[in-house]
Amino acid sequence: TNGPVYVGAIICALFIFAFLLTPRKPMTIALVALTILSVALALGRNFSWLTDLMVYHFPLYNKFRAVESILVIAEFTMPLLAVLGIKYLTDNRANLDWKNVSRKLYIAFGIPMAICALGILAPGAFGAVTPQEGAALAQYPEFYTLIESLRLGMVRSDSLRSFVFLALGLIVMWSYLKSKLKANLCMLSLAALVLIDLY
After folding, report:
1. Residue 162: phi, psi to the nearest 5?
2. Are 81 and 24 in contact (CB under 8 A)?
3. Apex CA 167: angle with CA 161 and CA 169, to 5°?
4. At 11, phi and psi to the nearest 5?
5. Is the distance from CB of 175 to CB of 186 less than 8 angstroms?
6. pTM of the entire structure?
7. Which residues 6+ apart lie within 8 Å of 118 measured at CB?
8. What is the pLDDT of residues 82-91, one digit of tens each?
């Protein structure tokens, strides 16, 4: 209704990194499970059995203005796990296998960067016009072409912007792992990048 929920490209990568890095403690499992649950519930009719279960059997759930409101959970759990992952990294720096940590870092940043690269090179893979819109615009081919072009351009530009932020975040984290940045400067740099990205 008001546009998509956005937690930030770097937060997404750090969330994956924290999940890969930290021990499978109840807190980590709970934060990941709550994130997945909130995303599944936000799918609404696209995941109808779960949505119907919540709407018809959980008190007050049907009072939500839009199913996407449940993403407020992910907006809390993803940054929290990302921060806990960085805390674990800095607290246990002396005891960690840095080759293993580096591999997990590359995986964590590589997954969202690959998705962004797909958005840059083939934005149509994410869809541009729904079948319903296509049927409604069938008699106006010039509008259909214009809308499709605008949306593909938005996907491409957003993917490029997120790719740049992810690359900068990866450089900051890599610099910390290689002892080229101290922990405080690493945290400040990440905080600044996340703030700019969210702004």
Report:
1. -65, -35
2. no
3. 105
4. -60, -40
5. yes
6. 0.88
7. 125, 126, 159
8. 999 999 999 9
